[in-house]
Amino acid sequence: MCKKLPYCARYIDSCIMSVISEINADSQYRTLASCCGHGKYATTIVVRDTLHNQNFEWFSKLMIPLRYANDKIRRRFYIKDTHGYYFLPNISIPCVVRKTRREAI
Ligand SMILES: [Zn+2]
Ligand SMILES: [Zn+2]
Prior knowledge:
The protein is an alpha+beta fold and 105 residues long. It has one domain (8-91). It has helices spanning 17-25, 101-104, and strands spanning 29-35, 44-49, 54-57, 63-64, 79-80, 86-87. Strands 1-2-3-4 form a four-stranded antiparallel sheet, covered by helices on one side. It has a two-stranded antiparallel ribbon with strand order 5-6. The two termini are 17 Å apart. The structure holds zinc ion (2 copies). Residues 4, 8, 13, 35-36, 38, 86 line the site of one zinc ion (ZN). One zinc ion is lined by residues 1-2, 13, 15, 36, 38.
């Protein structure tokens, strides 16, 4: 995982860039938002399934409703926690910080 940027929800985290391009290489899918979790949350990628007209989280395959309860179209997916880390409500589960590959070598 990479260092959290001040506006991480607006950009693709560098450590998941390759996964994002792989998903977008398939014309059925289009990534809408993502965050690697920066060691605090599980990595999540919000993906649009253009074939079935629905949004879901790539790793958990959990569906994300297209609209809010008040029928407004959902354009923002992440919520910022008190420390400035973004997470997907009802989806992100705080994950155990994994050791980096560098430490293992
Ligand atoms: Zn990262
Ligand atoms: Zn991020």
